[in-house]
Amino acid sequence: MLFSFRELTLNFHVSVWQVPRKYSSMVSNFRLSILLCFSLAPFTLLAQNKDTKEVEIRAGVDSQSKNSNFAKNPTGFQKEIDLSQTNTRYMSLPDVLNREAGVRIRQYGGLGSYSTLSLRGTNPNQSKIYWNGVPINNSMGGEINLADLPFDNLEKIEIYKSGTPAGFSGSAIGGSINLISKSKIDKPITRINLMGGSFKTAKATVTHMDQFAHGSYFVQALQETSDQNFSYLNNKGTVLFNTYDDTIDTRRNAQFRKTGFTGNLSLEFGKTKINILNDYIHRKQGLPGPGNRQTVSVERVFSKLSSAITTETNEFLFQNLTLETKTYGNFSKDDFFDPKSEFSYGTPNAFTKTNHYGFQLSPTLYLLEYNQVIRTSFQTEQEFFTRYEKRYNHETERKEPKKRRDTLSATFQDEIRFFSNRLFLVPQVRFERFTDRFGKDETSVRNQLLDPLTDVFYVKQAFTNPSFGIKIIWIKKDSLEFGTLGNISKDFRIPTFLELFGERGSIVGNTKLRPEQSRNGDFGFYLNTKPFTNWKFQSDISIFQKRIYDMILFLPNSQFTLRPENVDQAFIRGLETSHNMIWNKGIKFNFNYTYQDAKNYSESPSLNGKYLPLRSKSQGSALLAFFKDFGEIGLEYQYIGANFRDRTNEYLGYLPARQFWNLYIQYIPYKNLETGNELILGLEVRNLSDKRVEDLVGYPLPGRSYYFTGSYRF
Hints:
By secondary structure, this protein is mainly beta.
């Protein structure tokens, strides 16, 4: 979405040149504490009784869950979110992710609005998002609009905070998210969901899944609509100088219409599993703009098709080798309409097309007699980006030169186990090579004079990402597992097309940009236990730090244009903790909290020591729910600390702390235990206290809203 990316870039990029000396001592103490803990590990492990039973290689999740992706990253802090219970509630992808520790969602409005993801205080374009292991970040702007992603057809969400595991392509400074679609099932199911609520919101989904001789299939159709015409306080842009002109207005041009279809097929032939995945989304939405400058006719039409074929073959060629492959394609079209030039001038409309292809080969060698698992992954990708500038009547004015990115990557990981699978050492290295091509703009007089013989500009970059992780299981019993996790890594972010090649009339490209790079580290403890019958506890606590160099900032190049430069650095440190408790007789409780100190240490006196924009020092969430066979009632709480919009921390860009309360009730009037048929009715009240707040300065969020749900399974 190019029309909003410029604003996002100015909001999210921060400037730092050096980390002060006082933090170097903190880093030394951080490393010393890790070394002392690890030096005591062999003595503690030897003191435990030897257990020859195979120990599941997993961190931060229930040891009974089977997650093959987590096994590829045994030392990382990671979280699996089961979405089986969200099918009968009116929820979205930002709603689910925003409750997790270390995850921050920024929304430009209510349901269906532009939303971005930030992990551990990093920029949205520094995190990777995958769909069934397929990368979906685009090379134009780098960040992803969560509203454009699937949700209702997902089985679970995987969050990786310690980097990108083996088998996933690309380096990630912030971390990564993997969206897992529903594919394999245990028994035939058909479910119809009808939902509706405030602001003329309605959603309907029809889902069917069944089995056959050598596999199963899953299909789903979705239709969703909402006007999002909620009331809000319009300060007319005079926050301090004049409050007498403030009015209560109604949000306009914030409507959206969404259609989706999913068709997944799972096959199994001998020792080979094949998944054929297809997901299509079509969205038509208005773009309302800031609350004090609402638009009337700005619209966007977006469609995307994601397809993938994945295979997994056990005992490939010989017994100890497993081979996985992915072949995929992402195809998207984005139409932007601004007939009255409310967002832009000149040629206000635009049409963009992105095609992304890739293939991945991932063999895994199990050398269990040598206590090792060797994982490798090889990947090649191509991405093509084409943009057309259009007049107010949507006739083509000019076709921009096509942009292309070729990527080659290779990952090597060696998982080494000691002391009967109590100690894990995991060194890993990832090699990446990028080749970018950008055709010359033949309408530019400057390009014709400076490069009369050059038709295509090339930018080639390559770098290496090493990492090392360690896991120690201090206590391992049938009902208790307690351990330590630690990771260090070096990661990069390749510049985007917008940064390298610019945008006509507003951004001057810089092909000499260096990749952003970071030094990451985290360390903490996890506990999984079942102390009593029907009770289960999961807890983890970790500290983390990130030192990010060569961050790209858009600087004024003239009165009307910006130029990206490698002038920024950032230092982020923090603590996060997560606790889950379930009593199978009817109680569940979740608590998540994140504290982070993200500051700017630039050579500029006006920026040195300032907080990075849009980073709250504290953020937390909690859930308390009571459930029985006939239903469930739950109370949710979310707190987001104060933050600043701008890099200079001006008062006009100050966002005060805000908190929200949500209540949901589900009633099951009919349920057949033998067939699984059931009828579920639900009521959800969001923002119980009717807080009129903003997630970003100028973009209001809805007040109190109500949603009703009905779900029938047969």
